[in-house]
Automatic annotation (TrEMBL):
Species this chain originates from: Pomatorhinus ruficollis (streak-breasted scimitar babbler)
Listed InterPro entries: CCDC90-like
Main localization, broad class: mitochondrion
Location within or outside the cell: Mitochondrion membrane
Protein name: MCUR1 regulator
Alphabetical keyword list: Coiled coil, Membrane, Mitochondrion, Transmembrane, Transmembrane helix
Source taxon at top rank: Eukaryota
GO biological process: calcium import into the mitochondrion; positive regulation of mitochondrial calcium ion concentration
UniProt family annotation: Belongs to the CCDC90 family.
Cellular component, GO, one term: mitochondrial inner membrane
């Protein structure tokens, strides 16, 4: 071990500042002991170059073992996972095709139902239009018949009034005739 300061220069410095030679030497030796103790503690925690190389070799051998294990796992487990993944992809494609077919079928059914409903609605609309025309024609016929009946009723009413007036005048004439005869 080397000390990286000059102990004699430190003793001289202490003597210049009022310490005796004996006191300066005791202080410097105490400092050297403290530094040596600290260095011992530090060296205990440190690793030598040889120990470091051995540890590095051990780590490298562990890494090599892990690489070998990974290669073995890749060949066995990963290939099993890949085959399982391929199976799942095929199943998903089949399901996708089935769903697409079902969607197409439902779309076609809905389109057919929609067209049927449209034609049925058109038929209902035309039927209602025919009914409305027939109803309008019937209303016109009824109105015409009612008007004809009113006209006929008025003409019969006038005829009845004529006959009634004629009968009343005839009766009056006969009554006046009898009245003249009797008077």
């Amino acid at each position: 071990r080397r000390l990286y300061f000059d102990t004699h220069a430190l003793v001289c410095l202490l003597e210049e500042n009022g310490f005796t030679t004996q006191q300066s030497e005791v202080i410097v030796s105490a400092l050297v002991k403290i530094m040596n103790t600290n260095l011992d503690m530090i060296y205990k925690d440190m690793v030598t170059k040889v120990q470091q190389e051995i540890a590095l070799q051990q780590v490298m051998s562990h890494i090599g073992g892990v690489k070998k294990d990974m290669i073995i796992l890749e060949k066995s487990e990963f290939s099993a996972l890949r085959s399982e993944n391929e199976k799942i992809k095929l199943e998903l494609q089949q399901i996708k095709k089935q769903v697409t077919d079902e969607i197409t079928k439902v779309h076609a059914d809905n389109k057919l139902n929609l067209n049927l409903e449209k034609s049925r609605v058109k038929e209902l609309v035309s039927f209602h239009a025919q009914q409305d025309r027939a109803l309008t024609q019937t209303d016109r016929k009824i109105d015409t018949e009612v008007a004809d009946l009113k006209t006929m009723l008025e003409s019969h009413k006038l005829d009845n009034i004529k006959y009634l007036a004629g009968s009343v005048f005839t009766c009056l004439t006969v009554a006046l005739g009898f009245y003249r005869l009797w008077i």
